[in-house]
Amino acid sequence: MRPPAQPSIVILTGAGISAESGLGTFRAAGGLWENHRVEDVATPEGFSRNPALVHAFYNQRRAQLKEARPNAAHAALVRLERAWPAEVLVVTQNVDDLHDRAGTRNLIHMHGELLKVRCGLCGAVHRREADASRETICPACGRSGDIRPHIVWFGEMPLEMDRIGEALARCGLFVALGTSGNVYPAAGFVEQVGPGARTLELNLEASNVSSRFAERRLGPATVLVPALVEELLG
Ligand code: APR
Questions:
Q1: Are 18 and 179 spatial neighbours (Cβ–Cβ below 8 Å)?
Q2: Cα distance between residue 97 and residue 108, in whole Å
Q3: How far is the CA of 11 from the centre of ligand 1 (A)?
Q4: Cα–Cα distance list, 155 to 26, 159, 185 (Å)
Q5: Which protein residue has the closest C-alpha to ligand 1 atom 34?
Q6: What is residue 38's predicted lDDT score, i.e. its pLDDT?
Q7: Residues 116-144: tens digit of each pLDDT
Q8: Atom of ligand 1 nearest to the CA of 31
Q9: Which among 18, 26, 32, 152 is the best mutation to test ligand 1's pocket, defined by most ligand atoms within 8 Å of the CB?
Q10: What is the distance between the terminal CA atoms of the chain, rounded to a whole angstrom?
């Protein structure tokens, strides 16, 4: 008799997975919003009011990112993706590139990417490691004047929601990792899995939506994630 097929896995990650790489989380004291109102730096209205301030905020975060390295939790997810016999999809709310640098291939950046900017004139998205401003020239259309960070701000639609919804509906295991469950739609993904799917939360403390998971483990990501991956592959 053939062994039962292994189920596909969806892993939602949040700022907690990057905390041990030195990147601040959003809602912790001293988090990234300190000194900035969310309305000013993370909404389309804030950008219209003061594009220079918003670009300066993301330029600073882009510079911080260069100092950070992927940690053992990012590495364990790469190991899982490579060794698991079915699909492993990592959906991250993080705009950092630590999953990419660790080597995760099947990855959705649902809230955009810090190292990309978007042209409001032609819609092209391109990689940008250096500082950006509204006047940065778009390499696709050659014009300047409407460059913005490729970040999903409050009030905007996260990216690739159809693909995420399909993956959640057919997965056998959903893991939420390092996210406080404050921001939707990601906080509601646990409700979108199909019947019979296993749901597991890994976080430093119980999240806002912890009770909707069948299982939870509390601790740092660099301990919990390698242990889970060993368990799944073992
Ligand atoms: N290991 C595991 N979890 C951790 C660790 C760690 N080392 N350090 C912190 N955490 C947990 C915190 O306890 C918290 O519950 O990670 C969570 C981080 O929560 P938030 O700061 O709210 O970040 P996140 O949930 O990713 O935010 C979601 O909100 O502001 C928006 O768009 C932004 O993508 C972001 C979204």
A1: no
A2: 11
A3: 14
A4: 17, 13, 11
A5: 93
A6: 86
A7: 999 999 999 999 999 999 999 999 999 99
A8: 21
A9: 26
A10: 21
Selected catalytic residue, list 74, 111, 126, 150: 111
Count of other CB atoms within 10 angstroms of residue 157: 8
Residues near ligand 1 with C-beta < 6 Å?
14-16, 19-20, 25-28, 31, 93, 111, 178-180, 182-183, 203-205, 207, 220-221
234: CB partners within 8 A, 6+ apart: none
Residue nearest to atom 4 of ligand 1 (CA): 16
The reply to whether 111 belongs to the active site is: yes
pLDDT tens per residue, range 48-95: 999 999 999 999 999 999 999 999 999 999 999 999 999 999 999 999
- Predicted local distance difference test score (pLDDT) of residue 151: 98
In angstroms, what CA-CA distances link 128 with 65, 94, 228?
13, 17, 35
Which residue's CA is the nearest one to ligand 1's atom 35?
93
- Report pLDDT digits (tens) over 158-170: 999 999 999 999 9
Per-residue pLDDT reduced to its tens digit, 169-214 = 999 999 999 999 999 999 999 999 999 999 999 999 999 999 999 9
Predicted structure pTM score: 0.96
